[in-house]
Amino acid sequence: MTDGKCFLCGDTYSSRGMSRHIGACSKKNLERDKKGKTFHLKVGVGGYWIHLAVKDDTKLTDLDDFLRELWLECCGHLSAFTIKKETYSLDQMETMWEKSMDVELDGLVDEGDIFRHEYDFGNTTELTLKVVSVWEGRTKEKISLLARTLDPEIPCACGKKATLVCSWHVFDEEGWLCEDCVETHGCDEPALLPVVNSPRTGACGYVG
Ligand SMILES: [Zn+2]
Ligand SMILES: [Zn+2]
Ligand SMILES: [Zn+2]
Ligand SMILES: [Zn+2]
To answer: All domains of the chain, ordered by start, with CATH?
Structure first.
């Protein structure tokens, strides 16, 4: 598992250590009002994770925007949250099967709940979101990025650090390439994407 950095104090922790650390560090270093509450979320997939502080009146659409901006957006695909077996979609009319994302997080989730976000239903990136804890008092920002995994260190077959990934061979070891080995890999330019700090590295046209 990759280590991550806490942006409140600058220290580095393991995936497990960070959840505990954020609880303590946010008490000292994250300003909150006397009213309302804030959700401490851990969002992740594979070796990538982030910790967020999300104010109780934040809507699912805001959270969707934030995740797209930070990690996901390549070409405006559809997305949806799944919370307690209900699907919340973007720009969807309310139907029997799907609800709108235009709804506040408060009342939908509670401490310990785990829910899902999917982006792009063709080449899907599926994120797991966990409500690590619920804090008293609202943060100033709707959503604050508290911690994030360090840049991925994925080796090329030659041992050097990979800077490019071939979107056709992203699931093979040979798909991860350093600058020198790109020539010999053989796939065409459009398939080669930069290695970025996102679970969407190598998917669709994602360039960070
Ligand atoms: Zn910290
Ligand atoms: Zn795309
Ligand atoms: Zn190489
Ligand atoms: Zn390739």
So the answer is: 4-149 (3.10.290.30), 152-208 (no CATH)
